[in-house]
Amino acid sequence: MKKRVIEAWEKGILSREKMEKIIDIIDGKTAPDYMDLYFMCYAGIMKKSHTSYFRGYVSRKTDGYIEPYKGRFGTGFTHKEPNKNSSVYSFITYYLYKD
User: Fold this and answer.
1) Can you spell out the DSSP letters for the chain?
2) 67 - beta bridge partners?
3) pLDDT (tens digit, 9 = 90+) per residue, 26-78?
């Protein structure tokens, strides 16, 4: 995965600072935010797999939260977001590393 990050930097897709931050995220040294996931998808390091409902509440006062994920669909991160139309079900989006 680090090879893809360096290739994206060489092509000019990522700045040096963003490249270093993404490498720290891959190594587990820092937690990503939503924009980091966006840049990782744009650079071809990750892909946005799908969004679905999950039974649980996420506060509407936040933009959600990001958690590491390793499971049935692969390895990466999940972004849990509030559902404005329900207090029982919220959205979960899977961002997975490309192999």
Assistant:
1) -HHHHHHHHHTTSS-HHHHHHHHHHHHTSS---HHHHHHHHHTTSEEEEEEEEEES---TTS--EEEEEEETTEEEEEEEE--TT-SSEEEEEEEEE--
2) 78
3) 898 999 988 888 888 988 899 999 999 999 999 999 889 999 999 999 999 99
Domain range annotation of the chain: 2-97
Query: pTM of the full predicted structure?
Result: 0.86
**Distance from C-alpha of 41 to C-alpha of 50, rounded to nearest angstrom:** 13
For 64, the token pair is 């959600």
